[in-house]
Amino acid sequence: MRWLAIACIAAALGCGSDDAEPTRSTPPSAGSGAARADRCEGGQTSCYCPDGQLSGTQICDARGQRSACQCNVTGSAEQGVTSMPTEVCPQLPGGATCAAKSFVSPQLPASVLFVVDRSGSMACNAPPVQTVESCNLDPKRVDPNQPSRWEITTSALDETFGSLMGSTASVGLSMFSTDGFCGVDSTPSVGLDAVSPRQFSALSEAMHSADPAGATPIVGAVISAYRHLHQELHAAGNRFVVLITDGEESCGTAGDELNLADLSAARARLLQVEVQKARMANIRTFVVGTPGSEGARAFLSELAFQGGTARAPGCVHGASDARTGDCHFDLTTSQDFAGVLGNTLGRIGSEARGCEFQTPGGGAGESLNVQVRSGTGRPSCLPVAANGCGVGEGFSYSRRADGAIDYGRVVLCGTSCELVKSDPTAVVDIILGCPMLQ
Q1: How far apart are CA 217 and CA 215, in angstroms?
Q2: Rounded to whole angstroms, how far apart are CA atoms 223 and 234?
Q3: Do 272 and 375 sit in the same domain of this protein?
Q4: Average pLDDT, whole number, for the chain?
Protein backbone atom coordinates (compact mmCIF):
# COMPACT_ATOMS: atom_id res chain seq x y z
CA MET A 1 0.00 0.00 0.00
CA ARG A 2 1.44 3.35 -1.05
CA TRP A 3 0.59 6.53 0.80
CA LEU A 4 1.43 10.17 0.39
CA ALA A 5 3.45 11.74 3.20
CA ILE A 6 0.27 13.08 4.80
CA ALA A 7 -1.04 9.53 5.17
CA CYS A 8 1.93 8.53 7.28
CA ILE A 9 1.39 11.47 9.58
CA ALA A 10 -2.28 10.62 9.71
CA ALA A 11 -1.39 6.99 10.47
CA ALA A 12 -0.06 8.10 13.82
CA LEU A 13 -3.49 9.61 14.46
CA GLY A 14 -5.25 6.29 13.81
CA CYS A 15 -5.91 5.95 10.06
CA GLY A 16 -7.45 2.72 8.88
CA SER A 17 -5.64 0.13 6.79
CA ASP A 18 -7.75 0.27 3.61
CA ASP A 19 -6.24 1.12 0.26
CA ALA A 20 -8.23 4.29 -0.34
CA GLU A 21 -6.21 7.30 -1.44
CA PRO A 22 -5.95 9.66 1.55
CA THR A 23 -7.52 13.08 1.50
CA ARG A 24 -5.15 15.98 1.87
CA SER A 25 -5.66 18.36 4.73
CA THR A 26 -3.67 20.69 6.89
CA PRO A 27 -2.24 19.32 10.15
CA PRO A 28 -4.16 19.96 13.36
CA SER A 29 -3.16 22.95 15.43
CA ALA A 30 -1.89 22.52 18.95
CA GLY A 31 -5.32 23.24 20.37
CA SER A 32 -7.44 21.14 17.99
CA GLY A 33 -9.45 18.07 18.87
CA ALA A 34 -7.22 15.91 16.65
CA ALA A 35 -4.17 16.89 18.64
CA ARG A 36 -5.96 16.06 21.88
CA ALA A 37 -6.58 12.56 20.51
CA ASP A 38 -2.94 11.79 21.33
CA ARG A 39 -3.69 12.14 25.03
CA CYS A 40 -4.26 8.87 26.84
CA GLU A 41 -7.22 7.95 28.96
CA GLY A 42 -7.57 5.49 31.82
CA GLY A 43 -4.99 4.07 34.15
CA GLN A 44 -2.59 1.21 33.51
CA THR A 45 -2.04 -0.36 30.08
CA SER A 46 0.37 -2.93 28.65
CA CYS A 47 3.43 -1.97 26.58
CA TYR A 48 6.33 -3.61 24.78
CA CYS A 49 9.63 -4.32 26.53
CA PRO A 50 13.13 -4.53 24.98
CA ASP A 51 12.73 -8.28 24.42
CA GLY A 52 9.76 -7.58 22.14
CA GLN A 53 7.22 -9.03 24.58
CA LEU A 54 4.02 -7.26 25.64
CA SER A 55 4.97 -7.63 29.30
CA GLY A 56 5.51 -4.07 30.55
CA THR A 57 3.12 -1.53 32.03
CA GLN A 58 2.47 2.16 31.42
CA ILE A 59 0.48 4.59 33.56
CA CYS A 60 -1.69 7.39 32.19
CA ASP A 61 -1.13 10.37 34.48
CA ALA A 62 -3.40 13.29 35.32
CA ARG A 63 -2.08 15.28 32.33
CA GLY A 64 -3.09 12.54 29.91
CA GLN A 65 0.52 11.52 29.24
CA ARG A 66 1.82 7.96 29.39
CA SER A 67 4.82 7.07 31.51
CA ALA A 68 7.80 5.15 30.11
CA CYS A 69 7.28 1.42 29.76
CA GLN A 70 8.17 -0.29 33.04
CA CYS A 71 9.60 -3.75 32.43
CA ASN A 72 10.29 -6.40 35.05
CA VAL A 73 12.66 -9.02 33.67
CA THR A 74 13.36 -10.75 36.98
CA GLY A 75 11.07 -13.70 36.34
CA SER A 76 12.60 -14.83 33.07
CA ALA A 77 16.11 -13.75 33.92
CA GLU A 78 16.34 -15.88 37.06
CA GLN A 79 16.25 -18.93 34.83
CA GLY A 80 19.82 -18.10 33.82
CA VAL A 81 21.19 -17.76 37.35
CA THR A 82 23.35 -20.60 38.64
CA SER A 83 24.20 -21.12 42.30
CA MET A 84 27.96 -20.99 41.76
CA PRO A 85 29.80 -19.34 38.89
CA THR A 86 32.44 -21.41 37.13
CA GLU A 87 35.00 -18.71 37.87
CA VAL A 88 34.83 -15.17 39.23
CA CYS A 89 37.17 -12.50 37.95
CA PRO A 90 40.11 -11.94 40.35
CA GLN A 91 39.49 -8.17 40.51
CA LEU A 92 36.40 -8.55 42.68
CA PRO A 93 36.81 -7.67 46.38
CA GLY A 94 36.80 -10.97 48.24
CA GLY A 95 37.08 -12.95 45.01
CA ALA A 96 35.48 -16.38 45.16
CA THR A 97 34.69 -15.96 48.88
CA CYS A 98 31.82 -13.52 48.25
CA ALA A 99 28.38 -15.04 47.81
CA ALA A 100 28.52 -14.88 44.03
CA LYS A 101 25.83 -16.01 41.66
CA SER A 102 26.46 -16.03 37.93
CA PHE A 103 23.94 -15.02 35.30
CA VAL A 104 25.03 -15.80 31.74
CA SER A 105 23.52 -12.75 30.13
CA PRO A 106 21.61 -13.14 26.86
CA GLN A 107 22.52 -10.54 24.28
CA LEU A 108 19.45 -8.59 23.24
CA PRO A 109 18.70 -8.86 19.51
CA ALA A 110 18.30 -5.80 17.32
CA SER A 111 15.88 -4.78 14.58
CA VAL A 112 17.29 -2.10 12.26
CA LEU A 113 15.18 -0.37 9.61
CA PHE A 114 17.19 1.82 7.22
CA VAL A 115 15.15 4.75 5.86
CA VAL A 116 16.98 6.10 2.83
CA ASP A 117 16.39 9.33 0.91
CA ARG A 118 16.15 8.67 -2.84
CA SER A 119 14.89 12.15 -3.77
CA GLY A 120 15.97 13.72 -7.06
CA SER A 121 19.04 15.46 -5.62
CA MET A 122 20.63 12.09 -4.86
CA ALA A 123 21.33 11.86 -8.61
CA CYS A 124 23.98 14.60 -8.27
CA ASN A 125 27.68 14.01 -7.82
CA ALA A 126 28.97 14.45 -4.30
CA PRO A 127 31.26 17.38 -3.42
CA PRO A 128 33.85 18.37 -4.46
CA VAL A 129 32.92 17.08 -7.94
CA GLN A 130 29.61 18.94 -7.78
CA THR A 131 28.65 21.63 -5.31
CA VAL A 132 25.42 21.55 -3.36
CA GLU A 133 24.42 24.87 -4.96
CA SER A 134 24.88 23.44 -8.45
CA CYS A 135 22.81 20.40 -7.56
CA ASN A 136 20.00 22.53 -6.14
CA LEU A 137 19.78 24.48 -9.41
CA ASP A 138 19.76 21.35 -11.58
CA PRO A 139 19.64 17.96 -9.80
CA LYS A 140 21.71 16.06 -12.33
CA ARG A 141 25.27 14.85 -12.08
CA VAL A 142 27.78 17.13 -13.81
CA ASP A 143 30.36 14.38 -14.34
CA PRO A 144 28.91 11.08 -15.62
CA ASN A 145 32.25 9.38 -14.96
CA GLN A 146 32.01 10.04 -11.22
CA PRO A 147 29.51 8.29 -8.92
CA SER A 148 26.32 9.99 -7.80
CA ARG A 149 25.32 10.49 -4.17
CA TRP A 150 22.90 7.58 -4.66
CA GLU A 151 25.58 5.25 -6.02
CA ILE A 152 27.93 6.13 -3.15
CA THR A 153 25.15 5.52 -0.62
CA THR A 154 24.25 2.21 -2.27
CA SER A 155 27.86 1.02 -2.11
CA ALA A 156 28.24 2.06 1.53
CA LEU A 157 25.03 0.30 2.50
CA ASP A 158 26.17 -2.87 0.74
CA GLU A 159 29.17 -2.92 3.07
CA THR A 160 27.01 -2.24 6.10
CA PHE A 161 24.53 -4.99 5.24
CA GLY A 162 27.42 -7.38 4.74
CA SER A 163 28.95 -6.49 8.09
CA LEU A 164 25.68 -7.43 9.82
CA MET A 165 25.54 -10.89 8.28
CA GLY A 166 25.50 -13.57 10.95
CA SER A 167 24.80 -11.07 13.76
CA THR A 168 21.78 -10.93 16.05
CA ALA A 169 20.41 -8.01 14.02
CA SER A 170 17.42 -8.16 11.68
CA VAL A 171 17.63 -5.55 8.92
CA GLY A 172 15.07 -3.97 6.61
CA LEU A 173 15.02 -1.15 4.05
CA SER A 174 12.60 1.66 3.28
CA MET A 175 13.10 4.44 0.71
CA PHE A 176 11.52 7.83 -0.01
CA SER A 177 10.03 9.25 -2.10
CA THR A 178 8.39 6.31 -3.82
CA ASP A 179 6.29 8.01 -6.49
CA GLY A 180 8.45 10.83 -7.86
CA PHE A 181 6.60 13.32 -5.66
CA CYS A 182 6.00 13.01 -1.88
CA GLY A 183 5.12 9.33 -1.60
CA VAL A 184 6.09 6.94 1.15
CA ASP A 185 5.09 3.30 1.52
CA SER A 186 3.36 1.90 4.56
CA THR A 187 5.63 -1.16 4.51
CA PRO A 188 9.38 -1.32 3.78
CA SER A 189 10.80 -2.16 0.38
CA VAL A 190 12.55 -5.07 2.08
CA GLY A 191 11.05 -6.40 5.29
CA LEU A 192 13.04 -7.04 8.44
CA ASP A 193 14.89 -10.33 8.57
CA ALA A 194 18.22 -11.75 9.69
CA VAL A 195 20.98 -10.86 7.22
CA SER A 196 21.39 -14.18 5.45
CA PRO A 197 22.82 -14.30 1.91
CA ARG A 198 19.23 -14.21 0.63
CA GLN A 199 18.33 -11.14 2.71
CA PHE A 200 21.56 -9.41 1.71
CA SER A 201 20.71 -9.96 -1.97
CA ALA A 202 17.22 -8.53 -1.46
CA LEU A 203 18.56 -5.42 0.32
CA SER A 204 21.31 -4.83 -2.24
CA GLU A 205 19.05 -5.40 -5.24
CA ALA A 206 16.44 -2.96 -3.89
CA MET A 207 19.05 -0.22 -3.63
CA HIS A 208 20.71 -0.93 -6.99
CA SER A 209 17.39 -1.08 -8.88
CA ALA A 210 16.06 2.22 -7.52
CA ASP A 211 16.61 5.59 -9.19
CA PRO A 212 16.53 8.98 -7.45
CA ALA A 213 13.36 10.99 -8.07
CA GLY A 214 10.91 13.20 -6.25
CA ALA A 215 10.83 15.36 -3.14
CA THR A 216 11.91 14.73 0.48
CA PRO A 217 9.12 13.49 2.79
CA ILE A 218 11.35 12.87 5.82
CA VAL A 219 8.57 13.23 8.39
CA GLY A 220 6.20 10.84 6.65
CA ALA A 221 8.92 8.26 6.03
CA VAL A 222 10.17 8.25 9.62
CA ILE A 223 6.68 8.04 11.14
CA SER A 224 5.89 5.17 8.77
CA ALA A 225 9.06 3.40 9.94
CA TYR A 226 8.09 3.85 13.60
CA ARG A 227 4.62 2.54 12.90
CA HIS A 228 5.96 -0.54 11.12
CA LEU A 229 8.46 -1.41 13.86
CA HIS A 230 5.98 -1.00 16.67
CA GLN A 231 2.32 -1.16 15.74
CA GLU A 232 2.57 -3.59 12.84
CA LEU A 233 5.64 -5.70 13.52
CA HIS A 234 6.38 -5.53 17.26
CA ALA A 235 10.02 -6.18 16.34
CA ALA A 236 12.08 -7.94 18.98
CA GLY A 237 14.90 -6.55 21.08
CA ASN A 238 16.48 -3.16 20.53
CA ARG A 239 14.84 -1.29 17.69
CA PHE A 240 16.51 1.30 15.48
CA VAL A 241 15.52 3.56 12.61
CA VAL A 242 18.52 4.77 10.58
CA LEU A 243 17.62 7.85 8.53
CA ILE A 244 19.95 8.85 5.68
CA THR A 245 19.05 12.09 3.89
CA ASP A 246 20.64 14.74 1.68
CA GLY A 247 17.98 17.39 2.13
CA GLU A 248 15.30 19.13 4.13
CA GLU A 249 11.67 18.20 4.71
CA SER A 250 9.88 19.43 1.58
CA CYS A 251 6.47 17.72 1.71
CA GLY A 252 4.79 18.16 5.09
CA THR A 253 1.10 17.29 4.89
CA ALA A 254 0.22 19.52 1.93
CA GLY A 255 2.96 18.41 -0.46
CA ASP A 256 3.99 22.03 -0.99
CA GLU A 257 7.59 23.00 -0.30
CA LEU A 258 6.58 26.68 -0.31
CA ASN A 259 4.07 26.21 2.53
CA LEU A 260 6.51 26.99 5.33
CA ALA A 261 3.92 26.86 8.10
CA ASP A 262 2.86 23.36 7.05
CA LEU A 263 6.47 22.15 6.86
CA SER A 264 7.18 23.59 10.30
CA ALA A 265 4.10 21.92 11.80
CA ALA A 266 5.09 18.55 10.33
CA ARG A 267 8.63 18.79 11.74
CA ALA A 268 7.29 19.86 15.14
CA ARG A 269 4.92 16.90 15.24
CA LEU A 270 7.77 14.47 14.55
CA LEU A 271 10.05 15.98 17.20
CA GLN A 272 7.48 16.73 19.89
CA VAL A 273 5.12 13.76 19.58
CA GLU A 274 6.20 10.89 17.36
CA VAL A 275 9.83 10.57 18.48
CA GLN A 276 8.71 10.55 22.11
CA LYS A 277 6.23 7.75 21.41
CA ALA A 278 8.94 5.84 19.54
CA ARG A 279 11.33 6.09 22.49
CA MET A 280 8.67 4.69 24.80
CA ALA A 281 8.37 1.78 22.38
CA ASN A 282 12.15 1.20 22.60
CA ILE A 283 12.84 2.64 19.13
CA ARG A 284 15.93 4.82 18.75
CA THR A 285 16.69 6.99 15.72
CA PHE A 286 20.10 7.38 14.09
CA VAL A 287 20.37 10.31 11.66
CA VAL A 288 22.92 10.76 8.86
CA GLY A 289 22.91 14.12 7.08
CA THR A 290 24.78 13.95 3.76
CA PRO A 291 25.81 16.89 1.51
CA GLY A 292 22.67 18.88 0.75
CA SER A 293 21.28 18.73 4.29
CA GLU A 294 23.16 21.80 5.55
CA GLY A 295 19.95 23.80 5.94
CA ALA A 296 18.40 21.06 8.06
CA ARG A 297 21.16 20.63 10.65
CA ALA A 298 19.06 21.92 13.56
CA PHE A 299 16.15 19.62 12.69
CA LEU A 300 18.31 16.55 12.08
CA SER A 301 20.36 17.19 15.22
CA GLU A 302 17.23 17.48 17.33
CA LEU A 303 15.83 14.31 15.76
CA ALA A 304 18.97 12.39 16.76
CA PHE A 305 18.95 13.92 20.25
CA GLN A 306 15.29 13.18 20.91
CA GLY A 307 15.74 9.81 19.22
CA GLY A 308 18.30 8.71 21.81
CA THR A 309 21.43 8.56 19.62
CA ALA A 310 23.17 11.89 20.28
CA ARG A 311 26.83 11.56 19.30
CA ALA A 312 28.05 13.26 22.47
CA PRO A 313 26.47 14.42 25.75
CA GLY A 314 27.28 18.06 25.00
CA CYS A 315 26.23 18.13 21.35
CA VAL A 316 24.38 21.18 20.02
CA HIS A 317 20.63 20.83 19.60
CA GLY A 318 17.57 23.03 19.85
CA ALA A 319 19.28 25.89 18.01
CA SER A 320 17.14 28.63 16.43
CA ASP A 321 19.52 28.75 13.45
CA ALA A 322 18.40 26.03 11.03
CA ARG A 323 22.02 25.41 10.00
CA THR A 324 23.32 24.76 13.52
CA GLY A 325 23.43 21.37 15.25
CA ASP A 326 25.75 18.38 15.54
CA CYS A 327 24.03 15.61 17.52
CA HIS A 328 23.53 13.66 14.29
CA PHE A 329 26.17 12.35 11.90
CA ASP A 330 26.77 15.49 9.83
CA LEU A 331 28.71 14.64 6.65
CA THR A 332 28.04 17.92 4.86
CA THR A 333 31.58 19.27 5.15
CA SER A 334 33.38 16.10 4.12
CA GLN A 335 35.52 16.15 1.00
CA ASP A 336 35.56 12.35 0.99
CA PHE A 337 31.87 11.58 1.12
CA ALA A 338 32.24 7.92 0.15
CA GLY A 339 34.88 7.18 2.77
CA VAL A 340 33.21 9.09 5.59
CA LEU A 341 29.77 7.64 4.83
CA GLY A 342 31.23 4.13 4.88
CA ASN A 343 32.88 4.74 8.25
CA THR A 344 29.72 6.32 9.66
CA LEU A 345 27.48 3.46 8.61
CA GLY A 346 30.06 1.05 9.98
CA ARG A 347 29.83 2.74 13.38
CA ILE A 348 26.05 2.67 13.31
CA GLY A 349 26.02 -0.97 12.23
CA SER A 350 28.45 -1.84 14.98
CA GLU A 351 26.23 -0.24 17.61
CA ALA A 352 23.14 -1.86 16.17
CA ARG A 353 24.81 -5.28 16.43
CA GLY A 354 24.43 -4.69 20.09
CA CYS A 355 26.45 -4.41 23.25
CA GLU A 356 23.35 -4.38 25.41
CA PHE A 357 22.77 -7.34 27.71
CA GLN A 358 19.95 -8.41 29.97
CA THR A 359 20.43 -8.66 33.75
CA PRO A 360 18.25 -10.28 36.43
CA GLY A 361 16.80 -6.80 37.01
CA GLY A 362 15.64 -5.31 40.29
CA GLY A 363 17.64 -2.84 42.36
CA ALA A 364 20.84 -4.88 42.45
CA GLY A 365 23.03 -1.92 41.54
CA GLU A 366 25.50 -2.15 44.40
CA SER A 367 25.91 -5.93 44.20
CA LEU A 368 26.14 -6.37 40.43
CA ASN A 369 29.32 -6.80 38.43
CA VAL A 370 29.93 -7.59 34.78
CA GLN A 371 32.69 -9.90 33.65
CA VAL A 372 33.78 -11.03 30.19
CA ARG A 373 35.22 -14.45 29.39
CA SER A 374 36.94 -15.21 26.09
CA GLY A 375 37.27 -18.86 25.13
CA THR A 376 39.07 -20.77 27.88
CA GLY A 377 40.76 -17.64 29.27
CA ARG A 378 40.21 -16.22 32.74
CA PRO A 379 37.30 -13.80 33.16
CA SER A 380 37.94 -10.08 33.53
CA CYS A 381 35.60 -7.71 35.37
CA LEU A 382 34.61 -4.38 33.88
CA PRO A 383 34.47 -1.15 35.86
CA VAL A 384 31.26 0.82 35.90
CA ALA A 385 31.25 3.89 33.65
CA ALA A 386 29.60 6.23 36.13
CA ASN A 387 28.85 8.92 33.54
CA GLY A 388 27.71 6.61 30.78
CA CYS A 389 29.32 5.03 27.75
CA GLY A 390 29.81 8.35 25.99
CA VAL A 391 32.70 9.26 28.27
CA GLY A 392 33.88 6.00 29.84
CA GLU A 393 34.99 2.40 29.52
CA GLY A 394 33.57 -0.69 31.15
CA PHE A 395 29.79 -0.93 31.43
CA SER A 396 26.85 1.34 32.09
CA TYR A 397 23.23 0.74 32.95
CA SER A 398 20.74 1.46 30.20
CA ARG A 399 18.19 4.18 30.73
CA ARG A 400 14.50 4.17 30.10
CA ALA A 401 12.75 6.73 27.93
CA ASP A 402 12.07 8.91 31.00
CA GLY A 403 15.79 8.99 31.86
CA ALA A 404 15.56 6.67 34.87
CA ILE A 405 18.13 3.88 35.28
CA ASP A 406 17.00 0.53 33.88
CA TYR A 407 18.59 -2.12 36.10
CA GLY A 408 17.33 -4.80 33.72
CA ARG A 409 19.92 -3.96 31.05
CA VAL A 410 23.60 -3.07 30.91
CA VAL A 411 25.60 -1.69 27.98
CA LEU A 412 29.26 -2.47 27.38
CA CYS A 413 31.32 0.61 26.54
CA GLY A 414 34.22 1.33 24.23
CA THR A 415 36.85 -1.36 23.78
CA SER A 416 34.87 -3.81 25.93
CA CYS A 417 32.03 -3.61 23.43
CA GLU A 418 34.34 -4.01 20.45
CA LEU A 419 36.00 -7.05 22.05
CA VAL A 420 32.69 -8.85 22.61
CA LYS A 421 31.42 -8.09 19.11
CA SER A 422 34.63 -9.23 17.42
CA ASP A 423 35.14 -12.42 19.48
CA PRO A 424 32.58 -15.19 18.83
CA THR A 425 33.81 -17.09 21.92
CA ALA A 426 33.21 -14.18 24.30
CA VAL A 427 30.67 -14.73 27.09
CA VAL A 428 29.26 -11.96 29.27
CA ASP A 429 28.43 -12.94 32.87
CA ILE A 430 26.50 -10.87 35.40
CA ILE A 431 27.96 -11.58 38.86
CA LEU A 432 25.60 -11.01 41.77
CA GLY A 433 26.31 -10.94 45.47
CA CYS A 434 29.72 -9.23 45.47
CA PRO A 435 30.47 -5.54 46.10
CA MET A 436 30.54 -3.54 42.88
CA LEU A 437 33.99 -3.01 41.39
CA GLN A 438 34.69 0.71 41.11
Answers
A1: 6
A2: 15
A3: no
A4: 79
